[in-house]
Amino acid sequence: MRRSPLAALLALSTVIAAVDREQSLKVKLGLWEVTTTVSASEELPIPAGLLEKLTPDQRARVEERIKANAPKITKRAYCLTKKQLNEGPTFGQEPKSCKRTTLTSSDKTVHVRIECFDNDISTSGTLQVEALASDRVKGSVNFSLSVANGAPNSSATFSARWVGPRCTSTR
Hints:
171 residues
C-alpha cells in the first residue's frame, strides 16, 4: 500500500515534466543567426528636442531616412539560453523595460504579447515564433508605438538558423 502513493506521485511528476517540456519550442540552445526585415506603416516619430540638437546635415539625413521608410534588413547573432527558451524566445533584443506575456505555447509555436515603456513612449505588440526544425525558426512581430504626436504601426519578420552550441562574446 505504501508504494501506491509513491508510484502515483512519481507518475504525476513524470506527466508534469512532459507537459512542461511541451511548452517550450523544440529548438537547439546556443548561437543563432537572425535575419530581420522591419517595415513601418507610417513615419516613425522623432522624440521632442532631438531634431534641434542635430546639425543641418544630420537633420537632413535623418529626415531623408524617415521619408524613405523602406524595409530595413539586418543580420545579427542571438544567444538562446535555456531560460529564454522557457520564457518564450523572441530571437531579438529584449530591453529591460519590456513585459512579456505568453499567450500560447507549444513545441512548434510561441505567441507572446510584449509591452514596453521608455520615458513618454510606449510600445505594444505581439510576437509569433514558429519552429520549422530544431535548427531553423521563423517569426513575425506586429507592434504599435504610442507617442504624443501619433501612433505608427510597424511589423517585422525574421528567420533564424542555428550556428552552434556555444555563444560568442558578441551578441
